[in-house]
Each structure stands twice: as C-alpha cells, then as structure tokens.
Amino acid sequence: MSEAVSNPTALQYKRVLLKLSGEALQGQKEFGIDGAVLKEYALAVKEAHELGAELAIVIGGGNIFRGVDATAGMKRSHADYMGMLATMINAMALQDALEQVGLRTRLQSGIHMQEIAEPFIRRRAVRHLEKGRVVIFGAGTGNPYFTTDTAASLRALEIDADVIMKGTRVDGIFSADPEKDPNAERYSRIDGSEVIRRNLKVMDMTAFTLCKESEQPIIVFNMNEPGNLIRVLLGEEIGTLVHWNGTK
Q1: Which of these, 137, 129, 176, 177, lies nearest to 15 by C-alpha position?
Q2: β-pair partners for 240
Q3: Domain for residue 1, yes or no?
Q4: Is 120 inside a domain boundary?
Q5: CA-CA distance, 28 to 107, in Å (whole number)?
Q6: N or C end of the chain, less CB within 10 A?
Q7: Of 21, 14, 47, nearest to 160 (Cα)?
Q8: Host domain of residue 230
C-alpha cells in the first residue's frame, strides 16, 4: 500500500480538504458514475498523496439525487436525508477506486452506518491523515438543510486544513458564467468580501460565512484538467484563490 512520501516541504499546501461535485462523476452520462472519471480522480489523488499531501475529501451526490431539487411535494428535510445517502454511494465508489490504485483510506459518515463507515470523529480523522490515509467524509454534516459545500467548510476547519480546494469543471471564478459568456473574466485571486459584493457563486452563503469567520482560504480550479491538482498544491496560480482581508 502507498505511504505518504516525497518532499512535503515543496508543497504550498500540506493538509487539504478537496471538495468534489457529484455531477463531475457522471462524466458524459445523464446520471450515475462514470468509471473512467472515477479512475482519473483516484490517480490524481494518488499523485498528490505521493507528493506528501494529507488529503481529506468531501463529495456531493448530485449525480444520483439532489435533495434541494426534489419534487413531488417531498419535505425538504426528508429529501436532504436522501441526498446524504447519495453522497455515501459516491464516497464508497471513490473509496474503492482509491484503494484499487494502492491508497489506504478511511470513510467517515455524518450519519451512523457502522457496517460501511466510521462515525465522524475529529481527532480520529486527524490521526488518519497523520498516518498517511486518505479520509473521505460522507453524508454531509449529518443534518438536513446544509449542503456538501457547508460540510466541506466545516470539516476543513475541524481538521485544520491549510486550504479548501474546490474541484469543478471550469478554470476558476469568473465575472460571469464562462459556459454562457465567452467574455467572462477569470480572477486569479479575489478577496472574499468582493465575492460577496459581486454575488459570485463560489459556495452557498452558509459555507462561505464559515470560511470568512476563520479566514479559510479557498481555491476553485478545474479538476478535470490533468495535472491541475498537483500544480495547485505546488503553489502555481491555477484557478482562483479566495483570500480574506488581504491575506494570501
């Protein structure tokens, strides 16, 4: 099994919370999981781990079920719990893919599912990271009315992550939707207060407020571009860095 190695001093960020969207896993499919995308992500995480990074991952469930978008008169809280189960399906798939490329992993759940995952315990999660294991956090915060972005922000703060890296399908934060406006400007770095003032869609407001209060840096980057995860870890100006009050 792979161990944390290499030269961690070369890394700009050592302990990282990587947030992945569930939709990204579906690739070109209408729903579900694309095995090729899953393997690409697993190999990217392995490369980062071998460079010496401590990696924790939160993944969404939108490729399977989006609680907030549920219809048919379903209560929001009930739908959100169903969404949490969708994140666990993705988390288990990612765990298997990571282990198939030789990584040691632990899956922790915000909802007790003792047959398939550990309960989330902060000190245990940190210890796993220190031992070179990749930790996957599933089931969001364990509570309805909170998104996986909020779960990512909360877990990042709890494990003292150096940065939240939000892997998306676009190259960072833009002045407008780059998939709709070809003239949209990409920001290489931006103060969090400007994100709020310009109403740029980085995370939901609960997640963003958590980061603001603790001045937690966020990097939004294109996870689907090969090599980008490593380049961000090494400090290259890939994507967009959100900083706070002039901090870098």
Answers
A1: 129
A2: 220
A3: no
A4: yes
A5: 27
A6: C
A7: 14
A8: 8-243
Burial of 110 (0-12, 13-18, 19+ CB in 10 A): buried
- pTM score, two decimals? 0.91
Is 143 domain-assigned? yes
CB of 193 closer than 8 Å to CB of 203: no
Residue 127 sits in a domain whose CATH number is 3.40.1160.10
Around Cβ 205, how many Cβ atoms within 10 Å? 11
Task: Please list the pLDDT of the chain residue by residue as tens digits (248 residues).
Answer: 444 444 555 899 999 999 999 888 888 888 899 999 999 999 999 999 999 999 999 999 988 986 555 556 788 899 999 999 999 999 999 999 999 999 999 999 999 999 999 999 999 999 999 999 999 999 999 999 999 999 999 999 999 999 999 998 889 999 888 888 888 999 999 999 899 888 888 898 999 999 999 999 999 999 999 999 999 999 999 999 999 975 54
SS3 labels along 179-240: CCCCCCCEECEEEHHHHHHCCCCCCCHHHHHHHHHHCCCEEEEECCCCCHHHHHHCCCCCCE
